[in-house]
């Protein structure tokens, strides 16, 4: 049990959402939310091309689960290395996925994202450019390469992982929030442009206990501890209280993955251009 979460994290059972045999691309898939999304699709029987700069971690997971990259049966994983800030790497990942699936995917999950807790005055033009290249332009480039092909092939679903900060900005991590707001906006445009064959939705997580927070060098926990003058659980408790999270805890990657699966499935067949919040009630806006 993580006291910071106040929940016991366990592997979810298959939800049987009719995703068996579906072809799925997931970006930012080596750790955190992306890794949980990959695992959730595998449990549902989907075939997954998992794209990340840390493809070695995906390979380790595939080997441990008995799915070492084969594509001749449901529940298999293919790890693809890509620096998602680079257009050439994105195109190479698209080409590899097209080979694996013999065509476009049924489902595209744009999950990759990064940012640091910095004030507006600390952020340079280069900071904004780097953040937008990874968080925003990777989504734009992947959708440009894949969504028209998905539409032509008969349809599918796109799920973009944004953030509660895209809907309720704070005075720090301004570049990250702006990039995720841009993702949400483009999602709306794509939902209109490619309806009714391709549905495009967003999942907007709040504070989720992942390496985004826990990484010893780059995780946000250090900055949170410094901001609140507390350590460990006390710092997280102070953050939860300060943000007024009604559920009184941080979320889990599995909870976000469940939302991604729902929006990817026919169970959400009349849902497009929408944002599903998985934020513990953090965002107070009514729309």
From TrEMBL:
The keyword Oxidoreductase applies. It comes from the Bacteria. PROSITE patterns: ADH_SHORT. InterPro entries: NAD(P)-bd_dom_sf, Sc_DH/Rdtase_CS, SDR_fam. Keywords: Oxidoreductase. Gene3D superfamilies: NAD(P)-binding Rossmann-like Domain (3.40.50.720). Belongs to the short-chain dehydrogenases/reductases (SDR) family. This is SDR family oxidoreductase. It comes from Herbiconiux aconitum. The lineage of its organism: Bacteria, Bacillati, Actinomycetota, Actinomycetes, Micrococcales.
